[in-house]
Amino acid sequence: MDSPLWVYILGLIGMALYGVRIVVQWYMSEKAHKVVSPGIYWVMSSIGAVVLYIYGWLRKDFSIIFGESVGYYIYMWNISIMGLYRKVPKWVIVVQALFPVFILSLLLWDFPAFVSGFLHNENVPLWLLLFGVLGQFTYEIRSVYQLVYSVRHKESILPLGHWILAVIGSVMIIVYGLIRLDWVLVIGQFAVVFSIRNIILSLKEKAEAAKEDVS
Predict the structure, then answer these.
(1) Number of H helices, E strands in the chain
(2) Measured distance CA(208)–CA(202) in Å, rounded
(3) Which residues contact 202 (CB under 8 A, 6 or more apart)?
(4) How many CB atoms lie within 10 A of CB 31?
């Protein structure tokens, strides 16, 4: 291991939050017989992102930090549109909003050190870093897709395309984690099976809607 054990445990906690959020979302979807977008999913996403920001910084892994940056504020948007921030003190929201800025400031405070430590990390060759960034981008771009889809429908929705991108991104992250020898990233993608199940539920829902339109 090229990091202390406690760093991996921290990363595992972040990944566990990400994984459990999908399990909870899947359970609620099974009960509703359709894909749902519960508030707890977005709250756990937001907390998990904070933990993984710290993990990526400690591991000097730019692909993780990049991936979290793509979806972070989208999680906040979903929490906001559901009205969940009404129950939260304003200072908490401000701290949450500024957290990525704080992490990026730490990275860029000493730019030469950032380049040598994160972009020229001897444990992560450039080709592997680029593959990891692509995997994280594919996984997190689902949040952008979800945002656009939800804005159009004026409510928080987890559409089919969100889950398809999640599965593709998860597979890429697993491959990256195996090559990187980062078992936290590999274990953290256990929820990919629930993403696949959400794809099945979405397709069933679309098929039933099509039958109703025909009849």
Answers:
(1) 9, 0
(2) 10
(3) 35, 159, 160, 163
(4) 9
Please report, as a single letter, which amino acid is at residue 90.
K
Length of the chain: 215
Q: Give the integer Cα–Cα distance in Å for 101 and 214.
A: 51
Q: Specify the pLDDT at position 205.
A: 87
**The one-letter amino acid at 7:** V
Q: What is the DSSP letter of 145?
A: H
Q: How far is the C-alpha of 37 from the C-alpha of 44, rounded, in Å?
A: 12
Distance of alpha carbon 52 from alpha carbon 55, whole angstroms:
5
Please provide residue 121's backbone torsions phi and psi, each rounded to the nearest 5 degrees: -65, 125
pLDDT recorded at residue 130: 87
The Cα–Cα gap between 5 and 192 comes to 25
Cα–Cα distance for residue pair 5/55, rounded to 1 Å? 12
pLDDT (0 to 100) of residue 1: 54
So what's the pLDDT on residue 117?
64
Q: Is 82 exposed, middle or buried (0-12, 13-18, 19+ CB in 10 A)?
A: middle
Pick out the chain residues at pLDDT < 50: none
User: Cα separations (Å) of 131 from 8, 173, 178?
Assistant: 21, 9, 12
Inter-CA distances, 14 with 7, 19, 90, 184, 205, Å: 11, 9, 24, 9, 31
CA atoms lying within 13 Å on the CB side of residue 83: 1
